[in-house]
Amino acid sequence: MLTQCCLICSCRPLQSCNREKKKWQKVKLADLQIDQLTGMKKHANLTRAEIKTLPDNNTHMFILPSKEDINTQLTDKHRTVNEIIKELEVRTRLEFAKRHLKDSQTMRNKIIWSVGNQY
């Protein structure tokens, strides 16, 4: 028996439908990870801005490393987050392209099959 999802995503058996659901879950997970990493970038930028406003001879107890060390760490974090985001976006686009190609092939086959059965 086909579920409503099977009718929407035009997959045949339930196993195929589950594979489609897993693919979309991976895409959604990647989107959530990208959102989380973007938040980390914003936090690092805000921290950098706050550190820049402090005077150079800062003697606050809660800031042990120098401003240069903090700035270097934030720059490294920013670079790492950008690389991870880029990788996730490429992987997500590839997954979407594969799914779109498979859907297109399925629709093409259905059209060919329906035209072939008319004659």
From TrEMBL:
MF terms (GO), sorted A to Z: protein folding chaperone; unfolded protein binding
Keyword Chaperone: yes
Classification via SUPFAM superfamilies: Prefoldin
GO cellular component: cytoplasm
Alphabetical keyword list: Chaperone
PANTHER family per the UniProt record, alphabetical: PREFOLDIN SUBUNIT 1 (PTHR20903:SF0), PREFOLDIN SUBUNIT 1-RELATED (PTHR20903)
Stated role: Binds specifically to cytosolic chaperonin (c-CPN) and transfers target proteins to it. Binds to nascent polypeptide chain and promotes folding in an environment in which there are many competing pathways for nonnative proteins.
Subunit text: Heterohexamer of two PFD-alpha type and four PFD-beta type subunits.
Protein name: Uncharacterized protein
Lineage: Eukaryota, Metazoa, Chordata, Craniata, Vertebrata
